[in-house]
Design goal:
CATH class: Alpha Beta
CATH architecture: Roll
EC number: 4.3.2.7
Keywords: Lyase
Radius of gyration: 15 Å
Number of helices: 5
Organism: Gemmobacter caeni
Distance between the termini: 42 Å
Mean pLDDT: 96
InterPro entries: ChaC, GGCT-like, GGCT-like_sf
Number of domains: 1
GO molecular function, one term: glutathione specific gamma-glutamylcyclotransferase activity
Low-confidence stretches: none
Helix content: 25-40%
CATH superfamily: Gamma-glutamyl cyclotransferase-like
Order of helices and strands: EHEEHEEHEEHH
Oligomer: single chain
Length: about 170
């Protein structure tokens, strides 16, 4: 069983990992397009979290994690509890490429018809929301900074997250 991480799963998978590889999912992009009303915001003051949003010609580079043998069922249950808390994500399988290999990964993608979907927000608006939102798992800005930092450590460039990280630091200085 393979799981595709593009956000917090990169730095906090929460399941036993047997192998991890840099992988690329074509036709998707990493985007702060989901309002967070649980983990990084509240219903009154939603934060933003990342999702895979379908986009023609786009690609998202992340990490494919192979779940340790024998831990598949418990991993799936834990991921469903974590990722499907509000039903804004859809559980699906996406094809990824890692080097010369191509295989399917379990992934959580945004439902563009869900009320929490907010694709197309300007980066400045995203920065203002992220700078001030706080939810059950802590400040929204920590989620952004952890993700951006781990992507950089892995050598994965994401210009939008890099810009947002700088801007949120300015707004919270």
């Amino acid at each position: 069983m393979w799981v595709f991480g593009y956000g917090s799963l990169i730095w906090h998978p929460g399941f036993p990992v047997a192998e991890q590889r840099i992988a690329r999912a074509e036709g998707w992009h990493r985007s702060f397009c989901m309002r967070s009303i649980h983990h990084r915001g509240t219903e009154d003051e939603p934060g933003l979290v990342l999702a895979l949003d379908r986009a023609e010609g786009a690609a998202c580079t992340g990490v494919a994690f192979r779940v340790a043998a024998g831990a598949e069922a418990e991993t799936l249950a834990a991921l469903r509890e974590r990722e499907l808390i509000s039903s804004a994500y859809l559980e699906t399988h996406v094809p990824v490429e890692s080097g010369a290999d191509r295989f399917d990964c379990l992934a959580y993608v945004i439902d563009p018809d869900h009320v929490q979907y907010c694709g197309g927000l300007a980066l400045e608006e995203q920065a203002r929301i992220i700078a001030h939102a706080h939810g059950g798992r802590g400040p929204n800005r920590e989620y952004l900074w952890n993700t951006a930092s781990h992507l950089a450590d892995l050598g994965i460039a994401d210009p939008d997250l890099e810009w947002l990280s700088r801007r949120v630091r300015e707004l919270t200085a």
